[in-house]
Amino acid sequence: MTEAPSGVPESARHLFDALPERVSLYEVGPRDGLQNEAVVLPTDKKVELIEGLADAGLRRIEITSFVNPRWIPALADHMEVATSVRRRPDVRYSALVPNMRGLDGASRAGMEEIAVFLAASETHNRKNINKSTDEALATYRTVVAEALRRGMRVRGYVSCVYGCPYEGPVAVEAVLRVTRELVDMGVYEVSLGDTIGVGTPRQVQFVLERLLDAGVAREQLAVHFHDTRGTALANIVVALEFGISTIDSAIGGLGGCPYAPGASGNVATEDVVFMLQGMGVETGVDLDALATLSVRLSGYLGRELPSKYLKAHVGHCSRVGVPV
Ligand code: HMG
Ligand code: MG
Fold it and tell me: What is the CATH number of the domain that holds 144?
């Protein structure tokens, strides 16, 4: 009988060797989260949320979207939100923009950063922004050039990277194409969106290998996972191993996409911070302050938020009799 191999496999000896010392969290709760909540948060509560996130240590926050309010009614108060938030000099605030009208609104509101967005899937673009992929790219060429001329920073999103709710699997070449187009326009970063939460670690490896091999700089990539099927944290670990150090997340795990049926919340900021802190990766976020904010937000929305860390934290606090 041959003996079973023992000892630590060589491959496992190098796990986490390449972890970054710190990551930059890009908080999307006030935009991606609130755009899809059944309860529309009043403007003053949105402002309180955004200011609370900054106070908890988030340094990049997407605060709203200047899109057609008929399409996204929950963020119809974009102008009031963007002009009411008390700005901190150490925080970068951004807003989603789909066209020139959105850019003009963001400019008037004093935004210094915007984010443009399109999917790697043709049908999702039709459903979400009423344009073909080529029409969306043509629009963004003008929008990004004008935003840069106005001195704004521009981020880009590619949605449906790991699958589309209408078309199913999405070709990695389509992801590469729109990513390159966005980079060529001059966006400083492209966030790769798992809009419907179907990505698995192997797929993340496959997509990132293709993009990096094709010459996209890892410093220009961010990851944006919806945790619909529970794979988001595992996927984030893979992205970290590829040297990607910008992670999108939403407080409490809020979120979804109204034009992506079945999409659920973004990976929860608390869960990401807890995992990274445990791995010795700096986030700059005060987890207790964030949890306190989440509990308040959960009260405003009248529902329990999906963050697993939050559930454990609230349970622990009630067991030991301390306020959250
Ligand atoms: P459209 O109907 O084709 O626009 O919508 P249009 O140019 O034909 O104009 C129609 C009307 O909309 C006009 O008004 C325009 O003025 C108005 P009317 O004359 O009929 O009264 N309009 C606007 N109003 C306010 N702000 C604007 C604006 N633009 C036109 N910026 C449009 C095209 C793109 C505007 C529309 O489809 C839209 O607003 N879509 C938004 C979709 C959206 O926000 N989806 C969720 C975000 S994406 C996401 O969540 C994914 C992400 O998180 C990453 C991931 O998870 O993968 C980013
Ligand atoms: Mg999203």
Answer: 3.20.20.70
- In angstroms, the CA 24 to CA 38 distance is 29
Tell me the residue type at 47. Answer: V
| E-assigned strand segments in the chain | 24-27, 60-65, 92-96, 113-119, 153-159, 189-194, 221-225, 246-249
CB 269 within 8 Å of CB 305: no
Q: Name the residue of 68, 81, 182 to mutate for ligand 1: max ligand atoms within 8 A of Cβ.
A: 68
Query: Is residue 88 in a domain?
Result: yes
Number of domains in the chain: 1
Among protein residues, the one with the nearest Cα to ligand 1's atom 34 is 129
Is 7 domain-assigned? Answer: no
pLDDT at residue number 204: 98
Q: Is residue 2, in this structure, part of any structural domain at all?
A: no
Residue 137 lies in a domain: yes
Ligand 1 pocket, 266 CB below 6 A?
Answer: no
Predicted pLDDT of residue 219: 97
Q: Single out the catalytic residue among 160, 164, 257, 317.
A: 257
What residues contact 210, with CB distance under 8 A and at least 6 apart?
Answer: 172, 175, 176
Pairing state between β 113-119 and 153-159: parallel
**Is the pLDDT confidence value at 5 over 90?**
no
Domain that holds residue 167: 16-320
- 292-306 pLDDT tens trace: 999 999 999 988 899
- Mean of the per-residue pLDDT values for the chain? 95
